[in-house]
Amino acid sequence: MREPTDADWLESAAKLALRGHGGAEPNPMVGCVIVQSDGSIVGWGYHARCGELHAEAVALKRAGIRAKGATAFVTLEPCAHQGKTPPCCDALIKSGVARVVYAVADPNPLAAGGADRMRAAGISVEQIYSVACERVTAPFLTRIRSKRPWIIAKWAQTIDGRTATRAGDSRWISSAQSRAMVHRERGRVDAVMVGIGTLFADNPHLLPRTSRSRRIPRRIIVDPRLVTPSDAQVVQTVSQGPVAIAALSSSIHELSDERRKDFAAAGVTFIELTGSAMESAHRSFRGLPKGSMKKLMEHLYADGVSNVLVEGGAGLLGALFDEDLVDDAWCFTAPLAIADGAGAPIATGEGRTLMIDALRYELLNLRRRADDSMALWRRKT
């Protein structure tokens, strides 16, 4: 049996970091493993919740005096920022660790500089590339660099690539186990989003059906012409979680007094999308001018949204793919075939004319959920 390498320990730290999903955001998911010279793990930790101890502090607390002379493996460069918690680099210096290995440099100018501070204190500091650490840190890097949330698109399809029959029937394509996985993710993201077509077809409430929910997501309906019924489930359940409708400015301004009062009484808020359906011959989802999705996501980011789970339908997914905004794609495939060209497709954007212009994704994970397969695809950058 071979001895674990630095890359192995970083991968272990990355697996720990994933445990923080749904609690750590808007902070990055971070994991830390502290290993003594004999190869024994003396401390480990991950950032479980924003405002609480960072991964390094948790690991050092477990290690105690055993951290002296050890190596700390961290997914992200230890921070040098005094925020809700003290700088992690200072805690590592104080602990007496001899070496720190991290995978991803902190892109946040407020927190960066930890590596230099530790080197100045006499600690051996190395940055080693790790695919696992890069993947777990990708949502944070996207938020910092692009000023928008991390976007997950989810759909369930038949083996011939349809999400519903020509009559609109889609219950149920995916298994109960697949749907449970989606509900778990609803309870870990800041926002769940659907288009108006999905609202009319399914009348979903978009709340997580799990007692282990880590947060209550904001529910967002992308409805350019503002035709959402006031008796829709999502409107009637505002008391269980906030709801916003993203609509064209013209649609919001032209809303009748009666409908405006109904939405106000329910507690629904509006997000204005600039432009009108007649402004551009190049339209995306239901009359939205190009670039509307990017502006919507930037608005959500500015409003504190770290990640968005998009559950369809085809028009909304098409608009997001058109603007190259889908970071992760969760594709659930059921062992069913409709064999009907009029069945509902996955995405109906403007698309690409040439295959060379197609968006590129890489397969990160393929697993079985009852009789379904679940493929996790990530956008190549």
Summarize the helices and strands and which ones pair or pack.
Layout: H1 6-17, E1 31-35, E2 41-46, H2 55-63, E3 71-76, H3 88-95, E4 99-104, H4 114-120, E5 124-127, H5 131-146, E6 150-157, H6 176-186, E7 191-195, H7 196-202, E8 218-222, H8 233-236, E9 243-248, H9 249-253, H10 257-266, E10 269-273, H11 292-302, E11 307-310, H12 314-322, E12 328-333, E13 361-369, E14 372-379
Parallel strand pairs: 3-4, 4-5, 6-11, 6-12, 7-8, 7-11, 8-9, 9-10
Antiparallel strand pairs: 1-2, 1-3, 12-14, 13-14
Helix pairs in contact: 1-5, 3-4
Describe this structure in words.
- The protein has 381 residues and is of the alpha/beta class.
- It has two domains: 6-142, Cytidine Deaminase, domain 2 (3-Layer(aba) Sandwich), CATH 3.40.140; 147-379, Dihydrofolate Reductase, subunit A (3-Layer(aba) Sandwich), CATH 3.40.430.
- 29% of the residues lie in helices and 22% in strands.
- The strands form two sheets. The protein has a nine-stranded mixed beta sheet, sandwiched between helices. A five-stranded mixed beta sheet has the order 2-1-3-4-5, with helices on both faces.
- Helix 1 (6-17) packs across helix 5 (131-146) and helix 3 runs parallel beside helix 4.
- Residues 278-284 have low confidence and may be disordered.
